[in-house]
């Protein structure tokens, strides 16, 4: 395997891992009220900071549907599609 090919494989792996971790952070943010996880503690305060921009964008793009919040679901699905296109996994 050549050096350039190894670099591309490593970069794809890092991008895929980063997108997967971001999707997991969105799921934690979404499930936090149900599992009684306090995201305002100093150890977890970073989760809303990194996930809210994408979730709020999705909320603005989607039409209102009553009590159901589709923003986190749309964000995870969007990231999954981006990961599928960029990394092929």
Q: Topology of this protein?
A:
Elements: H1 3-31, H2 46-61, H3 71-87
Helix pairs in contact: 1-2, 1-3, 2-3
Question: What do you see in this structure?
Answer:
- By secondary structure, this protein is mainly alpha-helical.
- The chain has one domain.
- Helices cover 70% and strands 0% of the residues.
- Helix 1 crosses helix 2 (46-61) and helix 1 (3-31) packs antiparallel against helix 3 (71-87).
- The chain starts with a helix and ends with a helix.
Total strand segments: 0
Task: Count helical runs.
Answer: 3
The oligomerization state is single chain
- Helicity range: 55-70%
Distance between the termini: 21 Å
Question: Which features would summarize this protein structure in a list?
Answer:
89 residues, mainly alpha, 3 helices
Summarize the structure.
About 70% of the residues lie in helices and about 0% in strands. The chain has about 90 residues and is mainly α.
């Amino acid at each position: 395997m050549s050096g350039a090919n190894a670099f591309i494989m490593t970069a794809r792996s890092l991008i895929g891992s980063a997108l997967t971790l971001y999707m997991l952070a969105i799921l934690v943010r979404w499930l936090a009220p149900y599992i009684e996880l306090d995201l305002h503690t100093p150890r977890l305060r970073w989760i809303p900071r990194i996930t809210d921009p994408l979730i709020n964008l999705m909320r603005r793009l989607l039409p209102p549907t009553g009590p159901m919040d589709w923003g986190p679901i749309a964000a995870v699905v969007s990231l999954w599609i981006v990961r599928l296109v960029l990394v092929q996994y």
